[in-house]
Automatic annotation (TrEMBL):
Encoding gene per record: hisB
Record organism: Coprobacillus cateniformis
Cleaved signal peptide residues: none
GO BP term, pick one: L-histidine biosynthetic process
NCBIfam families according to UniProt: PRK00951.2-1 (NF002111), PRK00951.2-4 (NF002114)
GO cellular component term, pick one: cytoplasm
Protein name: Imidazoleglycerol-phosphate dehydratase
Listed EC numbers: 4.2.1.19
Length: 195
């Protein structure tokens, strides 16, 4: 089983996360940010990962520290659960329509963190979630999980729809990338022999 669990505590956040890549899409999420709970639930469902998250953050300030630290911990869990990445497909891509919005996520579990984020969000806040934190979340995931990650919004008008399409397309692309390629299950898919 490809699993990981992390406890991370700072002066700004206290986060406990459990991740099972080979799960059934089960989610048990409490981040203190309703919109973020919803996004993690979508991430679990569309990736097929089991994810359990408990987070206490300094939301009296804003959502910045909580969202960024959730990205850090998710990235670390992904990295740990994947281990040496032996047998994985490595690459994933998915385009998701969400009503009027269309978003494509392309990723490579390359061992080289890089984020390209081409997204315009019309609204600044959804509930107690600052929408600019979407980029910071995925930057943290990319940096910690060592993922080359490209997120491209072709078009969209509704901020909720755009962000939901981002999370769904990321989840589906990640689901493809972590799948075990039975033909190459004993190999690391790299000409260098290391990811």
């Amino acid at each position: 089983m490809r699993t990981s669990s992390i406890m991370r505590e700072t002066k700004e956040t206290k986060i406990s996360m459990e991740l099972n890549i080979d799960g059934n899409g089960q989610a048990n999420i409490d981040t203190g940010i309703g919109f973020m709970d919803h996004m993690f639930e979508l991430l679990a469902f569309h990736s097929g990962f089991d994810i359990k998250v408990s987070c206490q953050g300094d939301l009296k300030v804003d959502s910045h520290h909580t969202v960024e630290d959730l990205g850090i911990v998710l990235g670390q869990c992904l990295k740990n659960a994947l281990g040496d990445k032996r047998g994985i497909t490595r690459y994933g891509q998915m385009t998701i329509p969400m009503d009027e919005a269309l978003v494509t996520t392309t990723l490579d579990l390359s061992g080289r963190p890089y984020l390209v984020y081409q997204v315009t969000l019309p609204m600044l806040v959804l509930g107690n979630y600052e929408t600019e934190m979407t980029k910071e979340f995925f930057k943290a995931v990319s940096d910690q999980a060592l993922i080359t990650l490209h997120i491209h919004e072709a078009y969209g008008e509704n901020t909720h729809h755009i962000i939901e399409a981002i999370f769904k397309s990321f989840a589906r692309a990640l689901k493809t990338a972590v799948m075990i390629d039975e033909k190459n299950k004993d190999m690391v898919i790299s000409s260098k022999g290391l990811l």
